[in-house]
Queue: 4 jobs
Job 1
Amino acid sequence: MTHTATAAGLDPATLADMLRVAGSTGFRRWEDQIRRTGGCSDPIHITGWTLTKDKTTGEALHRYSTSDEPGGRLRIACGNRRASRCPSCAWTYAGDTYHLIRAGLAGDDRRDIPATVREHPRVFVTLTAPSFGPVHNRPASGRCRCGSNHHADDPALGTALDPARYDYAGAVLFNNHAGQLWARFANRLRREIALRAGLTRRELADSCRVSFGKVAEFQKRGAIHFHAVIRLDGPAGPSTPPPHWASTHLLTEAVRAAVAHTYTTLAIPAAGDQPTRTLRWGSQLDIRPIKAFGDGSDITEQAVASYVAKYATKAAENTGTLDRPIGNREALVLLDVPDHTARLIEACLDLDALYPDRRLAAWSHMLGFRGHFSTKSRQYSTTLGALRQTRADYRAAQEQHAFDAEPDTVLVLASWQYAGHGHSPGESVLAATIARGIQLNRQTAREALRDQLAREGDAA
């Protein structure tokens, strides 16, 4: 909910509600709940109870009920990955993604990923969309085709020079099929690697595995592109060394060949007033070797993991679109969506009847894109679910320690019900303050870790 700001910074109603919350008898417990959610901006409210009993004696070891909580509710984190919806939960998601990507680059003994994975061939690849028409940009020469030198925050960047001739339909159809284009690329990449190794596809599977972790990002023009870590392993994954013929050079050449191959194109049949289209990757292809530590020439493990984690929490908001489904065409005017983005959304709505199986209207707020923003192959590294389970196990161990009992000797009975979500206006202000403090502490800890890794790199 948006609240009107005054010269003092808060409108009177929000300020009054904030004082009410801060002055309530249960404020300290409410504050503790919010800290435990990481400062979540839209916490889930639940009511209920738990009872922990000794399995043998039936003795009650621990009782908990939300009836003693502020408002009779327990608040838990919403877990939304979008930074535009909940910055604090997105921060946690970004941290998990960072660990997932870096574990596949540097290893993680706790996840059975050996440090020797650093010796495997790996590259950081960026696959882009083709051109759908000239847009305002900042070329190396500094001067855009329109004759202006755009500053970095100019809202005109990425918008069409001539909207009447820009292929908005082609742009959203590319976004909509981007996941299939990636699947075709991944399949062809394995074939190209096999060709360069003088093997069949079956023989390649017996000696080498291709692993990847990727993230999607929207360019300012509203076109999706992918950043991917691609790694060559032995047949059993990161725990086995790649074959002798596997090299970064071979992998780089295979990526180039796969992107250019006709197999990685996708034919879209004509429908209504739309012509037959052939979707393919753009000509801008970036392939960079990944080094364990920086030497000034190649991208490092730290930089790659940070980059992927940054975009894992974003969607299409940087293009001016919304972070939730759009109800109807009229909402574009009421929500003040920029013209270029509105035209992309309208293209989705117009094409929905022509390509009903693509659900373009349902994904119009994503400019047609309907895939996952971050994905990985099975053997690349750990999983987000495993990382979340680690946190859950840690919290459970803390609770078990509180009443000094072994996990297999207790029985936990529980009953929970959903009771709403979110904050009141005053609670939102206070929760945001808590979230900023938590984020500052986390950032300080991460910077200390980064400095430590840099020192280790210098020592190496």
Note: Residues 425-459 form the longest helix (35 residues).
Job 2
Amino acid sequence: MKCFLTMSLILIFCGSAQGEVGHEIVVTGSRLSSGDYYDMPAVTIKRKADFLVQRIRLINDSRSPKLRKKEIIKTIDNLLKASRKNDDIELSYGEGFLVPVNLNDDSLQLIEDHKRSDTSYVNIYVKVVLDESRSSKQQISELRSFIADAKLISRTEIEYLGDIGLSIVSPEQYRYEILKKISAENDKIKKLVGGDCTIKIGGLEGRVEWERSDVAELTLYIAYATEVSCS
């Protein structure tokens, strides 16, 4: 007789894309719910994020498009200058994958707001390096204070987009740590079910994925499935 034990996995994402080596990934959304937890694989690791991040929108409704752009760019420049006085604060932009704000980069484009006439905006992320020796609450407060103290030019305004998120640099760096833990777990399963059983593991070629598990913590995993066959 053969019996089979299969662990099937459903992948739940919190507003993030799959990670690639060398990329900084932004993770938004709330912490894991109980339903999300049971949909995750048995083997995971927990890691502190690299940054706490707040997404903001800089909006300007000056009549002239050139003037709107000038005033928004000057506001970003003021934020960059302020961040250089604080080693823990950085500015980034992007969708899913973040890159440092560079005012000479043509990819930093202002968007015309079709719902409001004569209005342009740009979305950026303000980040603080996560310091494990200090409370997340204190660092979040400092991040928001930095944004509140921004020197806004003329008709430029700031709008907060969502709650505080997280970012992590190169999640793929944890691949072999996760694989090693999966291997150890399956060695335990083999000992538990006996020598007449074989174990097949599928999905190990998949990318490292993640869920937000706490205010400043991420749960990282690889979506794998284990099949135990006993004769």
Note: The CA atoms of residues 63 and 206 lie 50 Å apart.
Job 3
Amino acid sequence: MSNDTFDADGITLEQVREYVWEIPQEGDMRVPARVLASEALLEEIKEDKTLEQITNTTHLPGITTNAICMPDGHQGYGFPVGGVGALDAENGCISPGAVGYDINCGVRMMRTNLTYDELKGQEAELVDSLFANIPSGLGGGGVVEAGVDTVDEILARGVDWALENGHAVEDDLLHCEDEGMREGAKPEKVSQKAKDRGKNQIGSLGSGNHFLEVQRVTDIFDPEVGEAFGLEEDQIVVLIHCGSRGLGHQTCNDYLRKIEQQHQGLLDQLPDKELAAAPAGSQLAEDYYGAMNAAINFAWVNRQLIMHRTRQVFERVFDRSWESMEMDLLYDVAHNIAKKEMHEVDGEERELYVHRKGATRAFPAGHPEVPKAYRDVGQPVIIPGSMGAGNYVLRGGENSMDLTFGSTAHGAGRLMSRTQAKNEFWGGDVQDELEEQEQIYVKAQSGATVAEEAPGVYKDVDEVVRVSDELGIGDKVARTFPVCNIKG
């Protein structure tokens, strides 16, 4: 292997510059594919079908510049997790597979003025109370049970509905991507089956890699931006990671089936049926975009209700109001989404469907879509690691618009499948080790979930974030470390 190429079992990547590798355009590829990674991360990325999948995405009509794989990339459904594809909104397409089943899976971080010392000794009570009060796991059960009219309102209005119904304060909306409401949401384009699946799950974590974690801030890398984000060392913060539950999953499923029926011609041109896409301007593309935006609103309300319930739990455990503990939203950001955005391509501004699947929007300082509170410093980016590795808060980097359509990684990225994880780890042992060695208290619906999410299942989040920081797409601001964690 020479210094400027990397051979990944038959796929040769050429180094464009440090941490930027390209799979050259050939055959039916419309653009090259790029992987943003160190050689250490490439060694892991090449182990599954990620490189094949990111190459396949370059066949999508209207794809511009490059298909991009983030440093946390791993094999997904058709489109790799950690993938970014910007497709022309006029003559390209929109792909439900490139958004994923969990529409607007994302993360939300809430600050507090509590210090780690003030919380110590109450971890067990806190984790038990959170687990008892925040619905989790596969089935139904949410913070609110809703009728169909309510579900429609949530789909149309997002966090604005939560504000009106006493589950949010004005400040929450100001610290959420799109102020917690996607324009262009069309509840009528979400099927009755999807609404039925969602109506009992509003305010619930679900299962898999979703969690609520109480954390302490261990490092501040950029004091000025840290101050703008309201973060300081030893502070307690809360991270919530979940999405649109059964409603989003059903919506993705519904539109994949419709595409198979109506756009077989486009499907036949693609190397992988799981990339199923609807041509821009078609009725189906418009319908899916409206349904997806509605599911995005649903997910924001879901995380908002979990946060509201978390505030109530903290009030009981610490015997004071959440306002006096300054439990304010730092930011909420989506990482499974396709958005119409304006970007410069070949010197001209174009409207694109920017698909981010397991990738986080990372707009730099000064970008008009960054909330006013953070416009001077750049958009907050929240990157969860694993239960034993800690998490990062970044800010959108100066190079993100040029390199990645304003995106960076979304987490550590899996190394091992869930099945393999369950064969290698025993949930009870993982729980015991985390508590004994790291003072991390974990509570879950089943040992299997803990095994599937064991720290050893993930890539090195420090390395993923280092690459993002070195490339200037997402700059390090702070690091946090788990204190208690609940999962489905």
Note: The mean pLDDT is 95.
Job 4
Amino acid sequence: MTIRSIISTVLSDYTREKERAFAKNPLAKLLRDGFQENVEDDVLGDGIVTSGSPGQGQWATVPWIGVFDEEISTSATRDFYIVYLFSSDMKSVYVSLNQGWTFFKDTYGHNAKKQAKYVVKHFQNILTTKNNRMTTEPIHLLQPTESNDLVAGYERCNIFSIKYETNHLPTNEQMENDLINMIACLKDVKKVLVNSHNVAESIEYILSVNERSDSLSSDSAEKLPKNYQLLN
């Protein structure tokens, strides 16, 4: 299978499969293992692994497929990663450079939203590998009548994304190129971390620099360590 065929299958079948048993469901397995089993190494590159989630014991409101740099994280609960986030109505999917909302919620409590926003703005400002297919516009995964804190966390932790509409999916070649470019952005995130083996330390540093600003000021940029200047 190709990236396009995996994404298309989830978008077309997920709503129907949610009415069926979760255990041993083939679509659930496709979400978990489809990328790892089918996407070529020349697309993913060294040190990149994938895993997905149709839910934990029951179908998720928003299923996802994550693409992780093993040196940073292999979990969607913390640190930085790429994730395909399917909207709850299955009318679209976003390829998002994202960060773990659970980490912010557990670490910063009632300040989590503000702190996550600081980190989002930081990387929106310094990642020059972002191309014109990627947008910093908000992503929308839930319907107006729906509420889900974890999904809302995915939305607020999005750094930038590419949106695919179910009825207008691009070619598989374009989707492969989009993923390759997103992985390049993730690798540039890794380059500028204070400590790629302890991302929480890097986040703490970013927050200390941006404590009273929603985006980088010229003064705060001057305070960044040398490795933060690599992408400027």
Note: The beta strands are 48-53, 64-69, 80-86, 92-99, 160-165.
